[in-house]
Structure formats: C-alpha cells, structure tokens
Amino acid sequence: MNIRSLSLALALGTALVATTPHARAQDQDPVLARVDGVEIRLSDLAVADADIGSGLQVTGDARRDALLAYVIDVTILARAAEAKKLGEGPTFAKKLAYARQKALMETMLEDTSKTAATDTEMRKLYDDSVKKVTPEKEVRARHILVETEEKAKEILQKLKAGGDFIALAKENSKDPGAATGGDLGYFTKAQMVPEFAEAAFKLEKGQLSDPVKTQFGWHVIKIEDARDKPVPTFETVKEQIANYLVQKAQTELVLKLRADAKIEKPTPPTPPAVPAPAPAPAPAQKK
Question: Which residues are CB-neighbours of 195 under 8 A, at least 6 positions away?
C-alpha cells in the first residue's frame, strides 16, 4: 500500500488490525463497493483523490462518499465504453499512452520527494536560513483613533493626568480594536502607514505620542513593548521547508533529465505560398 493510500485510510478511520499478512492487507485496503462484480477498494479512492481531490470542498465521511460515487461512475462508464469497443480506436490508444506517461511521471516525482525532505535536510536549511536573518524591530502598541485633532489633544491630556488608556479607548476610539482597548499587537515599521509608524517607532516603552494624523483620522499612541522580531521556530515552518525541498528536488530532477535528453524539434514545413489575387480590371471609360 502506498503512502497516499495509507494516509487516506487513517484519515477515514480505517482500523489496521495486526493479524496475518493477508488479513492485514484486506483490512488496510477494504472493498467499499462492487459494480457488476468489479471491486472498488479504498486504494482506488486514494488514486481518485490524487486526481480530483483538490476540487472537493468536503472532508471526512462526506469526502469518502464523494470519491466513492465518482469511482463508481467511472467504473460504470468505462464498462459501457468497453461494451461499445470504444477502447479499440487510435484516439483512445493515444489517450492511454499519454495517461501512462503522465502516471509514470507523477510516480517518478513522488519517488524523488521521499528522500528530499529528510529531518537532516530540513534542519540544515532552517539553521542556514536563521543565520541570514537580519534582526527586525517591532513594537506592541495601543492607540485611540478619533475624528479631530482637538479630540485627540483632549484625550492626551486625560491620559497625562492619569487616565486609563484602555477605558478611554473603549469609550472614544472609532477603531474596530476599541473593544480590546486599542491593542494592535506586535507589528513592524513596514506594517503600518508611514505617519503612524514613524511616530510609534520613536517612542520608548510606556511613552505616549502627540496626536498623529493619518488617512484614518487622529491617533494617540501608547507603546506597550519593543523587541527584536522573534524568528519562527523550526516546528512552525517545518511544513513550508518540506514543501520547498520537495519542489527543489523535483525541479532539479526535471532540469537534469532535460539536459541529458536528446530533444529534437523538427522545423515545420513552410506552407505553400498562396498566389496573390489577380487585380480587378479597370473600369471602362465612357466615350
């Protein structure tokens, strides 16, 4: 059973019972339906999932049911085509040859991916990438957004007099984050509009800004914290690294095989020249 089939079996909750080798094989690849005696097994659904699965927007049992219905329809139509001997013409032979080559190509790429994203290679790429990361500053800030400069100055005075920033934000700010006291979380300079970013990154932890005008209105900003942006952990980017290594290995394989292959592209024959239409006779002149 291939990896894709086993993954699908696990996702669908198939029990893998450790009995005899034959029983284990049957348990891992059970018969899900029969069409005129033709068995459709779980592994057939795995093949169908690789073919059309990206277009299915359902999961779990609904996904299995959709795949099973599709494979049943394919089986029914294929048997009907065989009965009409539609598989004996040259067009079908071309399609079959192409499908075989495509399946071989996909199997080759899958085989390459098995050794591309090892833990050692993934960890090495992660460590090398981390060494190249330039530390980037980010701050955590709160803000109160109002319509006018006068209102912003009024709020700033209240804050300097000991007013509670969170309470004033909830009471006055028109920003959607007012409910959380104007908390913007951590952000880098590039993530904010220039006027806001310039003011925020000049402040120290705990400081308040003068009123700042942006396209959204007038802001009063308070810096809660400042730090170097943390590097993502290996676990959080492991899947992205694996995808990159697999794509890299597959691309390199294609380029190598392409370079080693003798590829010829015959020049298509020049189409025969079409004779120019004869000129229309000149109109007769009146005497």
Answer: 212, 213, 214
